[in-house]
Hints:
Strand order of the largest sheet: 3-2-5-6
Radius of gyration: 18 Å
Number of strands: 7
Number of domains: 1
Structural class: alpha+beta
CATH architecture: Sandwich
CATH class: Mainly Beta
CATH topology: Immunoglobulin-like
Shape: elongated
Largest sheet: 4 strands, antiparallel
Number of helices: 1
CATH superfamily: Carboxypeptidase-like, regulatory domain
Strand content: 25-35%
Distance between the termini: 69 Å
Amino acid sequence: xxxxxxxxxxxxxxxxxxxxxxxxxxxxxxxxxxxxxxxxxxxxxxxxxxxxxxxxxxxxxxxxxxxxxxxxxxxxxxxxxxxxxxxxxxxxxxxxxx
Length: 98
């Protein structure tokens, strides 16, 4: 009986820890308002990253508010975006390097 109680306690602690991440999503555009694919989206200070798809869409798990995303694509300026109150439908504009 004691083993079952300990197992249940561990299970619920595991579930609680899984809920500490937030899914952030958005779309990345260039100067002409065209979607950008293959943009690396990185949670700054971590090794968590993803790439935007052919429609410029991306989804990434973060710790949420206060995290900073880094957007990187060859030929474009780096962009940093701090996560505030909006974690979905982010609109990111990357400027071409001069």
